[in-house]
Amino acid sequence: MSDYKAFRVELTDKIAHVEINRPEKINAMNADFWTEIIDIFRWIDETDEVRVVVLSGAGKHFSSGIDLMLLASVGTQLGKDVGRNAQTLRRKILELQASFNAVDNCSKPVLAAIQGYCLGGAIDLISACDMRYATPDAQFSIKEIDIGMAADVGTLQRLPRIIGDGMMRELAFTGRTIDGEEARAIGLVNRTYADRDALLEGVFALAREIAAKSPVAVRGTKEMIRYMRDHRVDDGLEYIATWNAAMLQSADLRVAMAAHMNKQKPEFAD
Amino acid sequence: MSDYKAFRVELTDKIAHVEINRPEKINAMNADFWTEIIDIFRWIDETDEVRVVVLSGAGKHFSSGIDLMLLASVGTQLGKDVGRNAQTLRRKILELQASFNAVDNCSKPVLAAIQGYCLGGAIDLISACDMRYATPDAQFSIKEIDIGMAADVGTLQRLPRIIGDGMMRELAFTGRTIDGEEARAIGLVNRTYADRDALLEGVFALAREIAAKSPVAVRGTKEMIRYMRDHRVDDGLEYIATWNAAMLQSADLRVAMAAHMNKQKPEFAD
Amino acid sequence: MSDYKAFRVELTDKIAHVEINRPEKINAMNADFWTEIIDIFRWIDETDEVRVVVLSGAGKHFSSGIDLMLLASVGTQLGKDVGRNAQTLRRKILELQASFNAVDNCSKPVLAAIQGYCLGGAIDLISACDMRYATPDAQFSIKEIDIGMAADVGTLQRLPRIIGDGMMRELAFTGRTIDGEEARAIGLVNRTYADRDALLEGVFALAREIAAKSPVAVRGTKEMIRYMRDHRVDDGLEYIATWNAAMLQSADLRVAMAAHMNKQKPEFAD
Amino acid sequence: MSDYKAFRVELTDKIAHVEINRPEKINAMNADFWTEIIDIFRWIDETDEVRVVVLSGAGKHFSSGIDLMLLASVGTQLGKDVGRNAQTLRRKILELQASFNAVDNCSKPVLAAIQGYCLGGAIDLISACDMRYATPDAQFSIKEIDIGMAADVGTLQRLPRIIGDGMMRELAFTGRTIDGEEARAIGLVNRTYADRDALLEGVFALAREIAAKSPVAVRGTKEMIRYMRDHRVDDGLEYIATWNAAMLQSADLRVAMAAHMNKQKPEFAD
Amino acid sequence: MSDYKAFRVELTDKIAHVEINRPEKINAMNADFWTEIIDIFRWIDETDEVRVVVLSGAGKHFSSGIDLMLLASVGTQLGKDVGRNAQTLRRKILELQASFNAVDNCSKPVLAAIQGYCLGGAIDLISACDMRYATPDAQFSIKEIDIGMAADVGTLQRLPRIIGDGMMRELAFTGRTIDGEEARAIGLVNRTYADRDALLEGVFALAREIAAKSPVAVRGTKEMIRYMRDHRVDDGLEYIATWNAAMLQSADLRVAMAAHMNKQKPEFAD
Amino acid sequence: MSDYKAFRVELTDKIAHVEINRPEKINAMNADFWTEIIDIFRWIDETDEVRVVVLSGAGKHFSSGIDLMLLASVGTQLGKDVGRNAQTLRRKILELQASFNAVDNCSKPVLAAIQGYCLGGAIDLISACDMRYATPDAQFSIKEIDIGMAADVGTLQRLPRIIGDGMMRELAFTGRTIDGEEARAIGLVNRTYADRDALLEGVFALAREIAAKSPVAVRGTKEMIRYMRDHRVDDGLEYIATWNAAMLQSADLRVAMAAHMNKQKPEFAD
């Protein structure tokens, strides 16, 4: 892997560990962050050896969200014409969105491990992950409302599918902070672990379990759930039938079946 | 505000309090109710001073639903030709739906405070609100099944997004009554308060909090969540980018930022 | 009813009891199963006397999912050309899906009663039912991942609408087994009952309650909720208005109203 | 009918003739125009006696589009805050759109008869009609591009379904003027007539023919074609099945059948 | 092939010729017609040897549409309750639609050859075919309007995609008869041939040409065009990528490539 | 501009001329072609000075489509496992599609000028352009069917919206070659010009005309038409209202208005 400024990336036992690595800045999302994350997830997508991703934040906090300096710098690029400014801003927002779309569209499962602050843009980020796990004292807040804007890099678009419409609106209108336990109760995170060490241990255990499954099956499964977020049941059924028409001819099915019959652990090619 | 027969409407501190005001009739929804609610929400939409809405019912109950006299009177308008009757009924139903669409489409957040009965049409109504809060002894029932019809002013259309598909079907098929606590457990209401006084106090506190946020940001947030109920994630991302292309040029962003830096409370224009 | 090999079907008091009846094979879904279930639900759809369906499994377990012999036999039908194999497999998957679509599209409510194993294809099946009830020691697992494939007869398509996106992915990627209590906590089942006897008693009580309602209203309600899983709120409102334009001219409304006025139990025609 | 300032409205032989009536201003669409058209089409919708609508322009031209004075007056309502201006403009555009939505959603067929200029907003208007007929020397132009804006009251949204994507873009990007013959060749109008008299005669003959058909059948037909512009074929089939479930019980079917058998002209109730 | 009462079916040189065979009744669609057509197209779908279908009518006319006796017999099945009648009618219409859906969903191209009358239900039928060819004196009319109903077995749903919105509405509202030449001019048929003999000769020549192509490629092409009628461009691109992921591994590609290089005629397996 | 191997790119008078520049290979689309086109259109998108694009082919032909050597080289990357091959192929197809998506998503209008061969992949390419113009002796063919595959980089997805469903299927199933005149008759090209010189002169004249319009208005217009290809009319109306909420505050509107009043030619900023 190449060197990153905002991240630390490691690949061990088929698991890519992507850690936001600016702990002295509460892992605020600066310009490096937004471009590097695209490169990292392109590499993950193209590297057959990577089967699962764990996303975490170095230090006491997951992330305080977008770096306010970055936001301020966008303002300086604006001119006098409202229409042209609007085109500039629209393009800029689409660019930022592309960074988290890279996480959402990644063909391998992404597990987020969250402790401490998870604010504003950090909620947008974890909404683009597959699953979320936290410590009880994690603090979640849709902070955008407090800087006078509607969240525009994914929270308002992806979170309603995860936590339901009613509580979604309360959190988005008030910016209220919830802790890890409440996050679990409303379905934002799947489980809490006592502290950061237990959290990482627990999430890596899950990741290892997924990494041992057939990669062909895991990617198909992710693609189908992703697809269902936006499509009809009948379209989804037709899509999986077309998908599996090829994938059921893969060796993984035979490997899994044979292992099942012999009560052994299957070994799948990358 | 003009005088209403089925409602009492007050505007204090940027919060419009809309109270169904026929306590002697358990706040049953009569002809006045259905037309006045459209006027009220048009006024709310057009009045910049209103930033949040609290919807409640006067007396011991929120509402017993549609007035059966009104339903009976529709029957008297029918003639002999099934086809023409169908056109009359279809138009009538679309008219009733328009009353609650006015709540759903309102550009400001609507918080429902529910005590006592919340039956039939009242469920249709609260399904069109942004958030719902209740007392523990509130009683919710999709009563339509018991008068031999499928609910047709919004319950079956909006509630599945709020409480999920499985319990939705049980409640709709059986008309089973659930209390405030069960309503909270399945996500129908966000929180319960000990009694009606605590309920109103709690909901108004929330409303005040939202009223203090940037109105530009609150409306954008509501529009985006409303949009996501029916659209794809990629469409939603494109829509917020286009929306914020204008809104990020608003003064509210600067006001909020400045207040944030100075750790002061921001003051936003209406 | 005709004789079935994989099922036992009874009609009592307007309730069709459909029981998977291969307890010695843990109710594994063999070739008979997949074709008979279509016939059974066509009969249910066409038989006005049937108002509700209870679906259960004979013996200690609900079902272990698709019979692995059946899966193996599909493999033997494949030839050398990958393209033609893909067409064969695609057609075969669409056929299997059609069996559970018959359950999903059935115009009467289907209640699943689940004890013991509910694995793989059995999850696909219960995802196509209206409501699910279980014993605390039931065991649910999206087993497909362990035989190297993405679930393709409905689980990945229907379950996200029932249990939400976050936990859905964990269960689908890991194949983790959850018991009845956890299933209830995440909304997969509506309620648990102490043991199989209590379960069937409870589910039949619910079924009787639904069977006593207006069949015109129950079918309309089911059609609307089914429709909303895949459509927009505004489309849903237009659809129910068109539907009820005819149905509100039914006698059931008058029967229900009259009974309501006289505080009697209504009797509806089939 | 009440008196209108921008229109002349007549009802003869079940046909409503709606004529834009500001010939001295080339029928430019002023403030009166935009509000009165809503009232007129509401009246048409609610008046059973009206079965078809003919829309035309008094004098030498159909219409030169939106009155530039009106456009200028909107500008004066804007303040300093870009965000609040954007909300004002968005609301204003939605209001203007509502005027032509009233034409599009009208339950009776609307036939446009076009001579002379048909520019800018006038293209938006005729795109919302059911059918269009013209004189050979009519002049059509998507004029909005020449005042520096994208057409926002319906042309860009509805016209592609009528004339196809390729020529649509050329006309929208260039604002090129086409005459009646070219309009017919690309499907924008169904037929041309030698001059204004022949045009009105021809369109009224068509209108009379439609007025003689079953109103139940005509409205159902219009609703279905309108629905198909935005929905899937399978949704459309389900919708017409639900619609006709009521409408086929209408007397019109029997009247039409009987007339058909006896080779007589049927007479339908309004 | 089994014997059919309403059809004559022949398979020669990979082309199935399906001929409506009740010339003495102007090929009116009776009860046999509607059930046999489903069987015929299921057989076509399952028989690898069939690569293309030609659909024609025996005698002087293609078909006069639905048999009025059949329509009348439906009326006799209705009872007194409007609601239950509506359910009966809805089910009946869905059944009739299923007959033409079988044509639309057929995995092989269907070419319609039309001479003489093509009225009412016959328009519904040819709208479900892939391509249409006619004699100049063929007569097309959306006859349903004249029997007091909106067409409900496919014309209003499928035809707008073929002939565009503007002329569609004129033909549907007036029931106006157009001949083969006008049908060609508006895109309803692709080409006209001088008389019935030339028509069949021309259509069979086309069919032979298609039958000589790779069946894997032809089916993929049909599936994609069918899919695009109802889906977004981005969904369509993702779908063909998934489809071709398997199909490009087929031998047909190599066979076609090799033949292309050697300038020979390729021979594809069924 | 940087140097390209497969293209020649020039920017003159706000018009980017993109010419496929491998005339000795009939402009076949090789590996360079597919990657360079993305860079070129990214540059076009980001360069405010570019307002319109003309796409043409050097020499006697527009393009013979994908280079068969490239196709062959993909085959060599495949291994033994059908499932993994399918994933490789799917990714490869999505990559090729991305090249033409770059044309489709380009925010400036793209005009294709076509002479000679326009085969296979070249049809996919021109389907992604805004408008198409040709010489009478141009030759169009959906060639993919003849190499045993369904077209998978855009033809089957985009062309039906341009030429209608009926002729689309004939051309796709048969691969029949049509010339410029027939292409014009079915709406594939907007106009023909006598020869290549006249063609380029005509297309550049059109391009200059568009380049003189307000760039803010042109981009908005393109975005809206692109959006309508895949969205509902009501969504489109909401989208343009949101878009114009910002754009109508642009200076271009005032510039255009002032020029219009003074009957002068407006000058817009890039």
Fraction of residues of chain A in helices? 40-55%
Radius of gyration of chain A: 20 Å
As an assembly, this protein is homohexamer
Instruction: List the total number of helices of chain A.
Output: 12
CATH class descriptor of the largest domain in chain A: Alpha Beta
What can be said about the biggest beta sheet of chain A?
6 strands, mixed
Q: Report the CATH topology name of the largest domain in chain A.
A: 2-enoyl-CoA Hydratase, Chain A, domain 1
Give the N-terminus to C-terminus distance of chain A in angstroms: 18 Å
What is the 3D shape of chain A? globular
Question: Could you give the order of the helices and strands of chain A?
Answer: EEHEHHEEHEEHHHEHEHHHH
Instruction: Assign the CATH architecture of the largest domain in chain A.
Output: Alpha-Beta Complex
Number of strands of chain A: 9
**Class by SSE composition of chain A:** alpha/beta
Given as residue ranges, the uncertain stretches of chain A (5+ residues, pLDDT < 50) are: none
What is the CATH homology-level superfamily of the largest domain in chain A? Answer: 2-enoyl-CoA Hydratase, Chain A, domain 1
Keywords (chains A, B, C, D, E, F): Acetylation, Fatty acid metabolism, Isomerase, Lipid metabolism, Peroxisome
Protein name (chains A, B, C, D, E, F): Enoyl-CoA hydratase
Main location (chains A, B, C, D, E, F): other
GO biological process, one term (chains A, B, C, D, E, F): fatty acid metabolic process
